[in-house]
Design brief:
Layout: E1 2-5, H1 15-19, E2 25-28, E3 31-34, H2 44-48, E4 54-57
Antiparallel strand pairs: 1-4, 2-3
The structure holds iron/sulfur cluster (2 copies).
């Protein structure tokens, strides 16, 4: 699983990085990047994001 972010929606608050229990997310100059080898599809980040910028893809 991998989480992708919509750069037009993301306000770079960094909150999703903090809620991920696996440390899979990183905030970079290109937006949120997800390490697919760490993501366990818990959806904590998707549910947390205040602007709905994240989604999970297979
Ligand atoms: S929680 Fe949402 S708005 Fe905040 S950095 Fe993550 S994707 Fe961007
Ligand atoms: S779905 Fe869960 S494990 Fe995957 S990036 Fe989001 S918070 Fe982290």
């Amino acid at each position: 699983m991998v989480v992708t972010s919509d750069k037009d929606k993301c306000v770079r608050c960094g909150g999703c990085v903090g809620v991920c229990p696996k440390g899979a997310l990183t905030l970079t100059e290109h937006g949120i990047v997800c390490d697919a080898s760490k993501c366990v599809n818990c959806k904590a980040c998707v549910n947390f994001c205040p602007v709905g910028a994240l989604k999970i893809e297979d």
